[in-house]
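Re-run with default settings, no changes from the original entry. Doing this only to confirm the output is reproducible before filing.
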Amino acid sequence: MNSLAQLDQLNLDTATKQQVVNLVQAFQFDLTQQTQQMVYALELKIQALTLELAHLRRIRFGRKNEALSALSPRQLSLFEESALTDITAIEAEIEQINSTPPPNTTKVPRTRAGRQPLPDHLPRIIVFDYQAGRSGQHARHFLQNWQGHLMVDDYAGYKALFSTATSPCVELACWAHARRKFFDLHQANASTMALAAIQRISVLYAIEAEGKDLSIEDRLQLRADRSLPALHALHDWLMQTRSQTANGGGSAKALDYTLRRWPSLIRYAQTGFLPIDNNPVENTIRPIAIGKKNWLFTGSERAGQRAAAIQTLFGTAQLNKLDPAAWLADTLARLPTWPNNRIDELLPLTPAFIQSLKQQER
């Protein structure tokens, strides 16, 4: 319908017509509100970029300030080059936002790969993404219509990713997080209940250790034969223990965390390829988490994005069992004379995968 006036041609009764009018008006109001919010967000973005641009120009032309006077000529030249690159990029981004037509809330569906396990021949990578806040919309924007199993903690911002039956993401929970609740409880007051929980969870990890080198099919069979019965026994024990535990204490919170996340915690055992925990990623982000207060002062959003890119390279190197410092030194030594059409060979991936890239280029 192009207008509400066309309703008269449909011969609807008065009550039905009023319901349709109310629905159309509500939709139009929501659409207007969404458009206004998006326009406001763009205005804030332009304001932030303008302030960043002014800051860079002020530093660049303030040659006599204390910070720049301490730099060597080579450092000053490097800063000048970096500042010019940033200024050009910010100006281009502002121009792009200004030339963008009013936002359209209609999303074009994107075709993405289905839910498939990561093939063994592909490299393992980790990606850091910088955002100015912790809102769940950042995760949704990053993933968009990606489909697959996603392992997350219990942060509320992720819930919208799994909120509907048609959601492209399937939630996985991390057993390392669940175990940590009981570990911290046992460390705090030597809880015998927490120790019993840790021992029962260790059975699951012992089974995973046995299946580490198995094929996907054999690991699926191992989990069906041993992991699922152990999980069912653990769930019965958790339920019984929770019924005997008072509300509000640390024991209740540890038990509730695991029981609340149970459907996502046992999902790994129903396949032969999903992991039991997220420890590879947890180990990679630990330095960032420990020094998170330092990351409040990256200088600007652009600097935060640079830091994320650098940590992506370092984290990927560690995930592929490479020494990040040695990889960086080797890459910087090769980079000045390295051909652009072979730049992917310098990525921090396994030697076997780099060799496969070389063979593809021949």
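The longest strand covers residues 148-152. The chain is about 60% helix and 5% strand.
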